[in-house]
Design goal:
Elements lengths: L6 H16 L10 H9 L66 H19 L3 H14 L4 H13 L3 H14 L4 H13 L3 H14 L3 H53 L22 H7 L3 H7 L2 H12 L11 H14 L26 H5 L15
Helix pairs in contact: 3-4, 4-5, 5-6, 5-7, 6-7, 7-8, 8-9
Length: about 400
Amino acid sequence: MSCPINKDALDKLKQFVEICKSNSAILHLPDLNFFKEYIETLGGKVPEPQKMSSGPKVEPKEEPQETVEETVESDPESELEFDMTGCVEPDKLDDNQKMGDPSKEISEEDSDKVEEKRMEAVSQLSEGNIEKAIELFTEAIEFNPNSALLFAKRGQAYLKLTKPNACIRDCTRALEINCDSAPAYKFRGRAYRLLGEWELAAKDLRQACNIDLDEQTDEWLKEVTPNAKKIEEHLLKKERKKKDKEEREKLERIRKAREAHSRAAAQEKPGEDIPTGPEGGPGGAGMPGMGDFYKLLQDPEIMTAFQDAEVAEAFQDISMNPANFVKYQSNPKIMALITKLSSKFAGTGMNFPGFPGAGAGFMGFPGFGAAEGMAANPPPPSKPSDDDNLD
């Protein structure tokens, strides 16, 4: 009989089986209930999932930053595994755990009663009568609700009853009264360990050892350290990734800002593009067309010609008085340059600075346009006045 499932479907089925082998807890998902029931009809048994409701909180307490892409779920290295042996379900707090009135003033008679109740409670605790011990510690607390030792000892009794949350509540109150209470740190650290709060457990037990080291506290600390270090190293790695990403984003912002600045600076460099005014001329009064004019003067032949001192002087003379053009009509060097300029500016309507406007000929030079007659018929010399050369 041939297999009724094609190769692609078989490959996917193999992948699914491998996932189930590595984490059988997924078979308890509602969507996979049909598969779980099928396994059970064949006589198989799906392992119960580990009780993780009170397990370690891998995520840091602060709100996750939106900018961090490397989340714990997407990072294979962040799938931490812990030995949950010895962990218990969290207990519910009850109203019988009385905390007393912290504003109560303690009289000498109250102090005597407190000591009496405390000693009796310690005796009951040592004999294994834990419920009775808790009752006596509660009576003592009502006489003196500001005794860190009473809360720490009652927390120890709750710990013996495997009520870690009740123990944590009492020990936290003890530390509010006395922040250096080694028993409070010790028993609260142990309670956190029962709940699988490895990092918090290690923190409290280390503090208890720093204040008052004893063999039991040291033993409990060694027990939680491996799991606590896993979490601490994971959080450090995650924090490094976050900082690396922030640094990369910062460098990218700087790079983009520099590029934008360079582009803006390139556009604003003086002399590269002279802004034009009306009809294509540059901005500035009395200088229409100067941007295009100077571009046309970039012709190598024209630039070389203007380097000649004689040519430069002649053009300066003509720019001062266009009528002086007649003095240079017989100079082939200057006339050749004028012809060159004429061919470049023909039809543009632009004027050379200092010369008459359009209609007077190219740059106002006689011989080009309306001023041509000036060259053919120079103006007659003026007659001397009657007073010329008279004494």
